[in-house]
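The material for today's practical consists of a large collection of protein records. Backbone structure tokens are a discrete shorthand for how the chain folds in space. An example says more than a description, so a record of this kind follows:
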Amino acid sequence: MTIAPLPAATTAPLVVYLVTLGVERFAELRLSRRNLARLATRGAVERHAGHFWMFVVLHAGYPLALVAELLAGARPPAVWPLWLGVWLAAQALRVAAMRALGERWNVRIVVIPGELPVSHGIYRWLAHPNYVAVALEFVSAPLMFGAWRTAAAFSALNALAMAVRIPAEERALREATALK
């Protein structure tokens, strides 16, 4: 693989994006930990944790793959503002999901036995808005920088992880609701 120097016009937006991504993900992990502690006092339990490692690998590997593809020569396309708009829409969707779930939002599958799933806010229209947001991110952010290989690979890996996660989450919600 040939390492191509990044033009300044790509470097600054990439650094801003990577810092934003890092701050967002670390803030989410902190919020998730805080929410879990609060929910535990109400009897919440984590369910089906065996696949969580896939998300750790996916979200840790993604920025590395993005940078590697840019160093290999990928460059932002003329339509990068379109992909920025999609990425911003994904952020709005993520915030809507987090607001609707409130303290029940978590990066893990956490349920409170006997409580019904959230059905207000964005959940009136979408069953898994946060997962839609992540899927949009894995497409739009790399394409902002012209990294179509990263977009394709991490979208596919995310789809595989979601094929495990969504049924596990729905099963956990059904089991928790049955305890009511």
